[in-house]
Every structure is written in structure tokens, then in C-alpha cells.
Amino acid sequence: SPSLAELSAGKGMRFGTAINTGTGSTFNDNNYLNLVREECNVAVAENDLKWQAIRPSPDMFTFTGGDALVNFAQTENIGFRGHTLLWEDETRYPSWFDTYDFGADPAMEAERLLTEHISTVGARYQGQIDSWDVVNEAVNPGNGAYRSSPFSRNLGSMEAVLDIAFQTARDTLPNTQLVYNDFMSWGTGNAHRDGVLTLLEGMITRGAPIDALGVQSHIFAGTGNFGGIDEAAWRSFLNDVTSLGLDLVITEFDINDQNLPADIATRDGLIADYTTAYLGLMLEYSQLRDVLCWGLVHRYSWMQNFQPRSDGLQKRSTPFDDSYQPTPMYDAIAAAFEAT
Ligand code: G3I
């Protein structure tokens, strides 16, 4: 049967997954890489291109992990997404920022650090990375306001951070898709989505170069077909985003089955139902470019550590089990691409 790469290509789209280097990681598992080879026409760095990995100190760049992943994608002739040139949650900044001396002109030094980082990392993978998450998670999910970060404090506003980051990325990489990436949570009504929309509208109004919204899509299997998602509010948000002229990318899809029944057949069936409902809605948007899962195989998924099940069972958040066999979630993804 056709692969997800073939099925997505039939829709003019791409299917892919996150991959990660390091001890015990997916990149060292040849069975996992074979799944990528068979099923994916794009991949993304789960951790290797974050400041934490690539910028261990202010004057040092370590490209080892990023180079390995990008070279793999080149060898396999698949696309590659960069994640992320800046993660605006300050708990995700490398620890050296805690004591960094921004000097007599902190705004100038913050701009220098930020533009240096984006132009250096961007240029390193020019022509090899076709889509970058330029900024990740700049909005506080609790109230929709901008987060506060070392860069936003020193530059005076998050708007300044966004504009400098995206303009530097565009100047360095004129032909690369530039993405703002966020998870649009549902815990506090519409606050998170309203904040993301304000961010995007502001960028468009100011003429900042942005091409797409990255919709992470960590779907919580809660109440109803769409889990915690209010379908009407979600469609309204997507309509507003696409009305701005932006494309959509599903950047980190998985299903959080924390509260689903233990029985595997029952659970897998429900996970497939959530997948069908969510991807069916998203594929209604012609602006949707790519669909990437945040991992393919259960045991490597970040979901095993995030909100673990109270019964201690392994979560089944990804389309392949630990024997590399497709689950009903896989069939649901395939069917979503096949549907007209
Ligand atoms: O590599 C070290 C290892 O050497 C060390 O022994 C171990 C001990 O904690 O840590 C390892 O690093 C961990 C890394 O994952 C690699 O496994 C970090 O602690 C851990 O914080 C890191 O978690 C990642 C997380 O982002 C934070 O960067 C997850 O793998 C990754 O899936 C997750 O991805 C995020 C996206 O970037 C943004 N959207 C949400 C998504 C889920 O949180």
C-alpha cells in the first residue's frame, strides 16, 4: 500500500516526523530511520537545533547534531524543517543567559546576539532546511499576553523580538518558509488563541516577513471528537489566521491518551477517531502545507514523560508501536490524506 509520503504528496503536501540525536535516540535506531525512509518526505529536529543544543556558551556554536540530521535528510532526498531559531519561553533559554552581561547598551547587545544567532544558524543550513520555526511559543498560554524573556526585556517588547528575528531570517534565507510555532492550548478559554492571533495580526500590520503558523497539534484526548478543542472556536481561529494570508503547518502532531481506557484495542480505536476528526478538519484548509508527527514510535515519544497515565501503562501517542508496526492511528492518517 502507498506510504504516507506518497499519500501526502498526492495532495501536494508532505508527511514527516521529528528525529533526534544522542544516546538512545531515534537517530541511532536503524529500524526507526527505516520508517522515516519509507513513510516520510520531510523531517524536523526535535531538539538538536535549539539554543540549548547549538549554543552551549555565548561565543560557541555546536552543529554536530544538526549536521547529522540535515545530512541524513539530504542523503535520503527528503525535506527538512528547522526547530527552532528562538524559543521565547525563558525557561528554555540556555542557562548562561542567567548571568550574561548585556553591557552598557543592553538593547544593542540583545539585537547583536539575536541577529548573530539567526544569521549564523540560518546560513549554515541554507538550501538544506526549507522551513524554519523562527520563533516558538512567545505567548503566555494562561492569559494570551506576550511572555517575558531576556530578549523582550532588553529590546523593550516582544514585537521587537519578533520583527528582528523574522527580518534576520528573511534576509539570510530569502527562499525559506518562515513559521511562528505555538500550541494554542484550551485550558483558559480562548485566551491563548486570541494572543496568538494578536501576535500574527501585529506582524502582518508591521510588515514583518512571516509565511505560516505552525500548529503544534498535541491533541488531548478528552471530551468529544476533538478532545479539549471547541470545534467552532477552532475553525473561527483558523479562518482568522488564513484570512491574514498565512499558510498552516501541522508541526508536532500526537495524541495524548492519558485518560483513555487501558484496553489497547479500545484505546487505539479512540486514538484513530481523534486523528480522523482532527486531520479531517485541518485538511479542509487548502493553506495546510505539511503534517509532521512529533515522533513515530511510542517509546521515543516525549508523551511518555509528560502527563503519564495513572495506571502506568505506556502511552500510544504515535502511529507506530514499539515493534515498528503501524497502529490504527497510522491507518487514520493515511485515510485522511486519501479522502478528497
Ligand atoms: O540529552 C540529555 C541527556 O544527555 C540527559 O541525560 C537527560 C537528562 O534529563 O536530558 C537529555 O535532554 C533532554 C532532551 O529532551 C533530549 O531527550 C532534556 O532534558 C529534555 O528537556 C528535552 O525535552 C524536549 C523538550 O521539548 C524540551 O526541549 C523534548 O524531547 C521535546 O520533545 C520537546 O519538544 C517540544 C517542542 O520543542 C516545542 N513544542 C512542545 C514540545 C513538547 O514539549
Automatic annotation (TrEMBL):
<keyword id="KW-0378">Hydrolase</keyword>
<keyword id="KW-0119">Carbohydrate metabolism</keyword>
<keyword id="KW-0624">Polysaccharide degradation</keyword>
<keyword id="KW-0858">Xylan degradation</keyword>
<keyword id="KW-0732">Signal</keyword>
<keyword id="KW-0326">Glycosidase</keyword>
<feature type="domain" description="GH10">
    <location>
        <begin position="1"/>
        <end position="336"/>
    </location>
</feature>
<comment type="similarity">
    <text>Belongs to the glycosyl hydrolase 10 (cellulase F) family.</text>
</comment>
<dbReference type="GO" id="GO:0031176">
    <property type="term" value="F:endo-1,4-beta-xylanase activity"/>
</dbReference>
<protein>
    <recommendedName>
        <fullName>Beta-xylanase</fullName>
        <ecNumber>3.2.1.8</ecNumber>
    </recommendedName>
</protein>
<dbReference type="GO" id="GO:0045493">
    <property type="term" value="P:xylan catabolic process"/>
</dbReference>
